[in-house]
Amino acid sequence: MPNPQPPLRARAALLAAALSGSLLAAAPTAALTVPDDMAQRMQACVVCHGKEGRATNHGFFPRIAGKPAGYLFNQLNNFREGRRLNSTMTYLVDHMSEAYLHEIAGYFAGLDLPYPPPQTTGAPPALLARGEQLVRQGDPQRGIPACSQCHGTAMTGVNPAMPGLLGLPRDYILAQFGAWRTGERRAAAPDCMAEIARRLSLEDVTAAAAWLSSQPVTSGPAPAGSLAPKLPLDCGSGLR
Amino acid sequence: MRRGRRWPKVVAALAVLLLVLAAAVAWLNVRGEAPLEPEASLGPATGALLERGAYLARAGNCAACHTERGGAPFAGGKGIPTPFGTVYASNITPDAATGIGNWSPSEFWRAMHHGRSKDGRLLYPAFPYTEFTRVTREDSDALYAFLQSQPAVRQRNREHDLRFPYDQQAALAVWRALFFSPAEFEPDPSKPAEWNRGAYLVRGLAHCQACHAPRNVLGATNDRLELSGGLIPMQNWYAPSLASPAEAGVQHWSIDEIVQLLKTGMSRRGATMGPMAEVVFSSTQFLSDADLRAMATFLKQVPRHDPDPPEPARAPREVLELGARVYGNHCAQCHGKQGEGAGAAYPALAGHRTVTMGSSANLVRVILSGGFPPTTPGHPRPFGMQPFGQALSDAEVAAVASYVRSAWGNDAPAVSLLDVQRVR
After folding, report:
1. Residue B188 within any structural domain of the chain
2. Top-level class of domain A125-212
3. Which residues pair with B96 in a beta bridge?
4. Where are the alpha helices (DSSP H) in A82-169?
5. What is the percent of chain A where pLDDT is above 70?
6. Which residues of chain B have a CB within 8 Å of the CB of A20?
7. pTM
8. S-S: B87 plus which of A138, A177, B126, B370, CB 3.0-4.6 Å?
């Protein structure tokens, strides 16, 4: 905040600062300059979500780069409103205007960065086959829709608000299903994913997470343009 | 036999003493209370009155406690953790069954001024009636009218979850007898009107003292050391002293700088983070320039009371070397190799009061949790600090905190592992 000070006030401030033992605060040495852009503002995110929000292929934190802006905004808002519980995230977004949350979501959505190689390797073929079946066909007898019906045939998400499912750590995917079942992760009602999580068995979740986290992203990670004509479940987040 | 005859007298004397004490406590709890006026009604609320009430609700930041995260405004339910257990904020929407729809203006005033509920129960001072007692009847009525105009929400109040004996009304009565007396705001005729307006807000509705003052073991603040700083119970943030320029005192700031900080969350001299970011975001950014100037005028003249200089404690050389490495790897890109900061984006750490003041709690909190100053119209796109709680060990946090407290002319005691663990 550049604020030219009249000399008298500057001197008074300097004197006061000197008296309180903080001379250097009032007379900084040649200051560092940083870019005045969103990338610099969002440095707070990279320590967990990886450089430029692309995440790493180990650990827990989800990739946020290239996710649909509507999805990212919904999540930031869910953290702020207590529908998702992560004390660090809630703390970071607690005192932010909607306008800034939209700008943040748009910034990360606009990043088109290469994906790291998939995390999961060497999973048993039977498990992977079951996972792929669930992702691509679902389990109609048990009312479980295919992931691809909402998240796109390439599983890289659908604008405006369906997130891509590839490039996520397996532990992160497992944890989200756990959180939906216990109600720790919620979304705008009707909460379609909470409903699906209730219909899935532990084996289903393990299989789907193993398959999803073992897929390379090659076909361009950009979310597909528009939503499928009719969603299999009524979804409060879908229309946001 | 003689001893046997004496016992009844001792018991009787003790009983009388207890009765006298109980009567004193009871009297102390209702002193100054005028009888409620059941007929009192404000009549139809005018637009100006509601607007005034809405403004005062912002000034008092009622929603900060009475609105649960993601919940309906003013419907209560939010847990306020205290060292004595959790106090749950009440529903203050006009729902007749679960809110304050049946309350009269006098009953609302009695809660604000005397800390007693409609049914006569004593209220816990987590509701800061210790400060609100200075709010005028006129302002209380405006707040009442505003709250009564809000959508009624049927949400039953949650029982407080306090440990024995703090869950007893009798214990609360004793606390109040010791630490609370209803008060009027007394303007100081030797001071200008602006100072008095600031004093009225700071000491009353804005309840700054609720955080910026030390609390004793029973959770009471001390009016004699006004605004002299205190650790916020359970939050592990230190609300720095406004009485000392070595902490957050603004005696040497210009009025404009103080106003700017309260209005935008940011000034040339520093930014707000943590609980104060919340205060700016939910409360002070909405206050009029005239009221902010009045508060600034008062805050600038808070009598100086400097804390005792802390015991010098230098970290061992290897700790400072580790701290310097951590600083170089994680901090220097933004805060500069010499702690010089980067303009308005990142503060200089050389001479920064959060770094150098006696309590290291906020420095450690900021390293662990990172954070953004609040977004306000005057400062809509803040730069943020990374939360290093996951990336750095307690030892690394202690080392880098000790390093920045002793580098570039800073001369503050080292931060121990225990200091970090206490905050984490």
Report:
1. no
2. mainly alpha
3. none
4. 87-93, 98-109, 125-137, 147-151
5. 79
6. 245-246, 252, 353
7. 0.89
8. B126
